[in-house]
Design a protein that fits this description.
globular, nine-stranded antiparallel beta sheet, 13 strands, mainly beta, 210 residues
């Protein structure tokens, strides 16, 4: 299947530097997002959709962002509020079709600082997302599938002075629960992951070997 569409996608942004290297900003813009009809999982009793794998008409999206960010010495930071909408789909009989949208809004924060041999990164996002304008009124207000309610990431690395190019690294990631089914009766619980490792970089014939 082939779909031909054209869009005009305006955007506007502005910023104000209220202190050296400290800025407040705002942006708004429109974009487009395409959905393809998924293939159902090969589970007992499930049958292919009549339009599996086919593209659906492209939909217009909108996003608003307000934030403040700055830089001081070896530290970068930022906090912002965002609000966006995304198209959603639903199965009608054996046909998967567009079905309203979902509203996503939340807060994000980022922090990165270097102090001597140490580099520390941190970020967090809180998200409230809900379905809107569905033909099935029981889905309106529900949390969209596969969207975590929060994400927290912490990371650190340490450069080993005695061995140039060698660093030790660690990262901690936590994600909130996310929904599996559109009616929110099945969900994946929150999870936490810890990664630790070492990284070694060496120049070899004018190339970087990592």
């Amino acid at each position: 299947a082939q779909i031909k569409q054209s869009f005009t996608t305006p955007s506007i942004a502005t910023g104000y530097q209220f202190m050296p290297e400290q800025q407040v900003y705002a942006s708004w813009g429109e974009g487009v997002q395409a959905l393809n009809v998924p293939f159902p999982l090969p589970l007992p009793g499930w049958v292919p959709y009549d339009n599996s794998g086919q593209p659906l008409p492209v939909q217009r999206t909108r996003q608003l962002e307000l934030g403040v960010k700055g830089h001081c010495s070896q530290t970068h930071w930022g906090v912002n509020y965002f609000r966006s909408d995304k198209p959603e789909g639903k199965l009608f009989g054996n046909v998967y079709a567009l079905d309203g949208d979902s509203l996503h809004q939340g807060l994000e924060g980022q922090f990165r600082s270097t102090l001597g041999a140490w580099t520390v990164d941190a970020s967090a996002m809180w998200l409230k997302a809900e379905r809107r304008h569905s033909a099935d009124s029981t889905l309106n207000g529900q949390q969209p599938t596969n969207v975590p309610v929060h994400t927290i990431k912490l990371g650190a690395s340490y450069r080993v002075a005695a061995v140039p190019g060698l660093s030790a690294q660690a990262a901690l990631i936590n994600e909130g629960h996310r929904m599996v089914t559109p009616d929110n009766t099945v969900q994946v619980p929150a999870w936490t992951q810890l990664d630790v490792g070492v990284r070694y970089t060496q120049r070899l014939n004018n190339q970087a070997l990592v």
